[in-house]
Specification:
The chain is an all-alpha fold and about 100 residues long. Helix content is about 80%, strand content about 0%. It has one domain (about 5-95).
Length: about 100
């Protein structure tokens, strides 16, 4: 991986961390749901971008998939199997796995 790619990934992760902290602070301060939802949408988009980068060539590797798993476990630890089954299409994929 080139140094530029590493720095780009670190920047994405740092931005996700900042947004996650902002979301936690906003919840403590009882900020409006609209604002929190905006932060969460941006965080979701950044996590998606990070996963896309890690799953794409030339970064794509077993190690990059472990990083994806680590990101998902850190920022979405409470998503249970039952939550996946609420969506028919997702449920079909989960069953196949």
């Amino acid at each position: 991986m080139k140094k530029v790619e590493v720095l780009k990934m670190i920047d994405l992760v740092e931005e996700i961390k900042k947004l996650d902290e902002l979301i936690q602070q906003s919840r403590k301060k009882k900020t409006s749901d609209f604002v929190i939802n905006q932060y969460e949408a941006k965080k979701l988009k950044l996590i998606g971008s990070t996963i896309t980068e890690l799953a794409s060539a030339p970064i794509q590797s077993v190690e990059s998939y472990h990083l994806i798993q680590k990101i998902l476990n850190k920022y979405y630890p409470s998503i249970s199997e039952n939550n996946l089954l609420n969506d028919d299409d997702i449920s079909k994929i989960a069953t196949a796995i």
